[in-house]
Amino acid sequence: MITRNKKRFLPLLLTLLLALTIMPALGMAAPSTVNLGTAKSFAVLAGSTITNTGPTTIGGSAGGDVGLHPGDDPTIAVFPGQEAVTLSGTVHLFDAVAQQAKLDLGTAYNDAAGRTTDETISGDLGGQTLIPGVYTSGSTIGITGTLTLDAQGDSDAVFIFQAASALTAASGSKIELINGAQPCRIFWQVGSSATLKTGSKFVGHILAMASITAETGATVQGQLLAQTGAVTLDTNVITNELCAAPTPTPTPTPIPVPPTDDQLPKTGGFPVVPLYLLGAMMTAGGVLLKRKTN
User: Fold this and answer.
1) Given 111, 190, 253, 279, which residue has the most CB atoms within 10 angstroms?
2) Is residue 32 part of a domain?
3) 11: cis peptide before it, omega within 30°?
4) SS3 helix, strand, coil % of the chain, rounded to 5?
5) What domain range is 196 assigned to?
6) For the chain, how many structural domains are there in total?
7) Whole-angstrom Cα distance, residue 47 to residue 203?
8) Cα 286 → chain centroid
9) Pairing of strands 270-271, 266-267
10) Over 70: is that where the pLDDT of 283 sits?
11) Contact criterion met (CB below 8 Å) for 45 and 101
12) What's the rounded mean pLDDT across residues 77-89?
């Protein structure tokens, strides 16, 4: 009787375990990426001014362009400190290319801001490990120490962070990516301004309503995109990379199929059974005999 009850309970237990495994995935559906339009080739894009101090490097396979529109002073030919900037792209000051990029930035900003929240966050994200999803703060977002983003093996996984006001990455802070997470799939929508403190290592696209400041030695894997305010640089490295191609799924090794009687070699008219099949047959026979005896 006890054996029969266990057999009846086993399917119910397996069903419960399967439900518990699926429920978290259903509760936090993976968000789609944010389309940046023509703004995707701009590593730096600002609304009022761009200034730089010290040697700054701007580049990346997605584009190393720098853009300014409409600008506080549309008569300037270069932005302050431009001579100390090494860049792989083109500087667009007040032209139609920068104007269109700013329009596309506005669309992308609204898209990111309008995403449905998966989890509400508050305070500092340092020391945490987060999985793909949309994270929303009703005030500021801070990063002190290390924030780890875990894509859980999905190289297309998207992380979207929504801050109602400011974003601040503390001095020496860093963002680490694990299990396939990519900078090109990380978006920071900031309701006011973003500040990357001295020596911080930041990852992702910053879409700020106002201004963005990268202090001395701060590095960025992504973009600095400010809608209305300034972008201020100081001896930075900004790398705007394309997404890496997904790793192909390896072909599974085929499982050997045991030969049939017709395929086995015969001795005296009887098939010769390989030792591994003979052992399996004996084990199965023992189990059946034990069940019959019980």
Assistant:
1) 190
2) no
3) no
4) 25, 30, 45
5) 37-239
6) 1
7) 22
8) 53
9) antiparallel
10) no
11) yes
12) 98
pLDDT score for 264: 52
Contact between 124 and 104 (Cβ < 8 Å): no
Structure tokens at 2: 């006890």
Cα 82 to its chain centre, rounded Å, is 31
d(CA 274, CA 224): 67
- Residue 251 belongs to some domain of the structure: no
Q: Tell me which DSSP letter residue 95 carries.
A: S
Contact 34, 187 (CB under 8 A): yes
Residue 16: its pLDDT value, please? 43
CB atoms < 10 A from the CB of 282, how many? 10
Q: Which amino acid belongs to residue 176?
A: E
Q: Is residue 158 part of a domain?
A: yes
Asked if residue 117 is part of any domain, the answer here is: yes
DSSP code for 39: G
- Whole-structure pTM value: 0.77
Residue carrying structure tokens 């930075």: 236
| pLDDT computed for residue 258 by the predictor | 60
